[in-house]
Design a protein that fits this description.
Layout (H helix, E strand, L loop, with lengths): L1 H21 L3 E2 L1 H24 L4 H22 L8 E2 L22 E2 L1 H11 L3 H8 L3 H11 L3 E2 L1
Parallel strand pairs: 1-2, 3-4
Helix pairs in contact: 1-2, 1-3, 2-3, 4-5
């Protein structure tokens, strides 16, 4: 448990520093690209931890923090101007008309059994992996729910 808390707090602090140092008010593409590579690695580490350990509020918040950080970085990389407080050294000009930066997923949303496994692990206080073993017997329920909502489903 203590080792898990250390890992979570370390990743939390690393994301804070990464965002402050590389994705702050003054940005450039070199730092944004570095932040993008690092946040992808951190998200993978967090995902592995999430799967293997008991799910806690801290784990969920860390996972969400990493996702939101990646979305901010991706959005910043797409913006080719300086706007408001966010100055981009590579694009110091401000466009005459402000445009929204809209991120579109590369793949169709897929409903999988992760929601069920997360719920089971929280209720029973077990790891995500253990919950996935329990949920294997519940795949039919997940499949039926996906069909009602017209979502594709994968294991």
């Amino acid at each position: 448990e203590a080792a898990d808390e250390i890992l979570v707090s370390h990743n939390w602090e690393e994301i804070r520093r990464l965002m402050w140092d590389f994705v702050g008010i003054v940005r450039n593409n070199k730092r944004l690209n570095r932040a993008d590579r690092r946040i992808k690695l951190l998200r993978e580490e967090i995902r592995e931890h999430y799967i293997k350990h008991k799910i806690s509020n801290d784990n969920l918040e860390l996972r969400n923090l990493a996702l939101v950080s990646e979305l901010i970085i991706t959005s910043a990389l797409k913006r080719k101007e300086s706007r408001g407080l966010h100055f981009t050294q590579d694009y110091p000009q401000t466009d005459k008309v402000a445009k929204d930066t809209i991120l579109i997923p590369k793949h169709k949303p897929v409903l999988n059994s992760r929601w069920l496994e997360t719920k089971i692990s929280i209720q029973k206080g077990i790891s995500f992996y253990q919950a996935s073993q329990i949920s294997n017997s519940s795949k039919f329920a997940c499949s039926a729910r996906a069909q009602r909502h017209k979502f594709p489903i994968q294991g």
